Here is the input.
Amino acid sequence: MRFELTPRTNSPTVMRIFASVAAFITAFLIAGFVIWLMGRSPIAAFDVYVLQPLSDPWSLQELLVKATPMALIAIGLSYCFRANLWNIGAEGQYVIGAVLGGWLALRTHGTDAGAWLLPLMVLLGIIGGALWGLIPAFLKTRFGVNEILTSLMLVYVAQLILDYLVRGPWRDPKGFNFPQSVTFDPSATLHPILEGGRVHYGAVFAGIAVLVTVIVLGRTLFGYRLKLTGDAPRAARFAGFNSKATTLAVFAISGGLAGLAGISEVSGQIGQLQPSISPGYGFTAITVAFLGRLNPIGILVASLVVALTFIGGESAQIMLKLPLDLTQAFQGILLLCVLAADAMVSYRIRFVTRGGGR
Here is the structure.
């Protein structure tokens, strides 16, 4: 006996919402069982992971800080994924955006630059990420090279470039030989939205990206083009949509938003260039994009949920002595549960015997 998945003709919105809720509950139950096997209380873990961060004002600010880069990157990735193109290298585009925007901050360091500096840094960050994203897109459209491999390999190239720069020509001469650049000037720093707060204007960029993407994907021909290209490539070609132009466009958008996240992080949260400027935001954003079902609003909610697991995981590591890797495992479990729930809603399971009966 084997089973087959047959598409459902109609999947009500209520069923999809219920499936999402069921997926989250299932993921928490699985994680609680694993924590119980490790000799810890699942109830205490839930309190540390979820309740305490949501009840502490500082943790709520940190929640927005960590969600900002993931939301920006995931929004960009949704353009690629909707067109059935796989950009796995957002981490590298994030790094190059930070490098190119940070270059201007270092170039003007100590010159008392005016208000023009920060907008130009942000623009350079977007350009850097977009250009890095166009490399796998060009290789795919020109030579047919698989974009998954090239975008992924370029991540390590970008990280090595950053590592070389902060250990070599861009290292702070007064930094006691630590591999880091000088601290950015105030004119090159993305200031907090509220004085004394942690949330900087990168969160505003993320909000704008969500609103623009809602309009682009839902109200424009370009959004329809992406959907048609992803769902029915042959129909897209018959409609006159150029697949190569689409590939270049979505990789440029995806890389640009990742670069924006990178320069926002180093100019707002970190304040300088270091060998490591990301805990893996570019890779985690892939999970965020699919948790949000490639929908801008869903991605915003998913980024907050995943950011909550980061903060809760750090607290659980201290208070419950749980390994930080458990957080990444939970994110993977959550993604699997959501994908499984989507499959159950979109398809019916049909059991088939060897003779062809049901």
